[in-house]
Each structure stands twice: as C-alpha cells, then as structure tokens.
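fyi for ur records
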Amino acid sequence: MEFAYSFAGLLVGFVVGLTGVGGGALMTPILIVIFGIPPVVAVSTDLIYASVTKSGGVFAYARKQLIAWRVVILLLLGSIPGSLLTLNYLKGFADLSQIEHLMNLTLGFSLILTSIAVFGRNRIREFALQQESKPWVSSARKIRPYVTFVMGLVLGCLVTLSSVGAGALGTALLITLYPRMSMPTIVGTDLFHAVILTGVAGAGHYTMGSVDLALLGYLLIGSLPGVFVGSYLGAKLSPKVMQPIMGSVLFAIGLRFVLAG
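which gave:
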C-alpha cells in the first residue's frame, strides 16, 4: 500500500507538471475513491501536501518579480479569515458523517467549477480584455480591491472544505479581475496565495487530528520526481490539447461527488 500511495503521488505530480492543474483537484478524489481514505483525512492531508509541493515554485516567481504582492495581501485578508471561520464551523459538528457529506458536496462543486476554469481560461481572458475599454469597467476598478477580498474569502472556505480551488479556479478569477496582468504574474500571485492558504488550512486540520503524516510522506516521495518529469514534457505539449482533456476529467469526477452526495 505504501508503494501505491507513492505511485499516486508520482502520477498526480506528473499531471500537475504536465498541465499546471492544482494537485488537490486530483489527489483528494484519488485518495477517497481509489484508496478509500475518509474524506476528512484525504482533504486534511492533501492540504499540507499541496502547500509543500507548491512552495518550491514560489521562489522562482519571486526571484523574477512575478508576484503582485498587493493582490496577494488582498486575497489573504479574505482567505485566511474564511479558512479560520470554516475550521471553526467544522469543529462544531459532533457527527463525522455530517462533515464528510459537506466535504463531498463541496469537493464535487469545486471540481466542476475548476473544470470550467480549465476549459475557459483563454476565453475568460479574451472576454475580460474586450471589456477593458467599456466605460463601466473604469468605474468597477474602484471596487476591485473589495471584490478581490471577497474572492479570497470564498476561496478560503472552498479550499478548507475540499482542498480544491486554490489553483485553476483562483487563476481564472484573477484573470477576470486583472486581465492586463501578465499570465506569469497571475500564476505566480495565485501560487504564492495558494501556498499560504493551504498551509494555514492544513495546520488547522492538523490541530483537529485529521492529518495522516505517514500518508503525506509517501505522497511526497512520489510527487516530487513526478512534477519534474511532467514539467519537462509539458513544455513540449500544446495546452490546447491538454486543457480540454483535464477539464473533462475534472468535470466527470466532480459530477460523481455531487451525485453521490
């Protein structure tokens, strides 16, 4: 079983490197559906797994000054309180089955939203750029910091409940709000925010005693080389081919969780 966990980490790391889609969108469903890990343990462990695996990429973006720190702060002002409130809400449940039901539903809807974000990332960017010249957009910029804060709050709740949403969904929302920001800066900004958010949420789940440290170790052993190989091959493959495939897979998995919930 230990080898199977590491192989799952290798597979997910490879796909993440290949497509850029967040590991939580794949790892949590694999742990629940294939390995039969309880949703609470799967989500909790995957949050720390995501924080560790994504942290390596942050330094490269920071060195190249591809992180919009003001946007990161606005996101964290919403997402950290959102995560802490969600953790406090979960601690109020006396019945574990209620938590698992809520997590399954949230996971399903988060995966469906992520699949839409993967499918439509380029179209979302094109549409947002087309709207930039409209008069109402200039007025809307005044409330953009507040919208960014609310976006962080929503992501904080979703990620804490499902471990999904900090990657592709966060990127799609940033593209919508900041269409003139370069894609590398959007990715770097979203990545840094995701590392902090998943770390805080994972630490909160750890205090609840739902993180499996042994499982976490086996996943990391496989994922690190997987990300390296996937990144190497991903540079040679067209996103136009990979994005529809990943979007379809995530939509199907998300639908399964929604119907099962």
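The chain is about 85% helix and 0% strand. thats all i got for now
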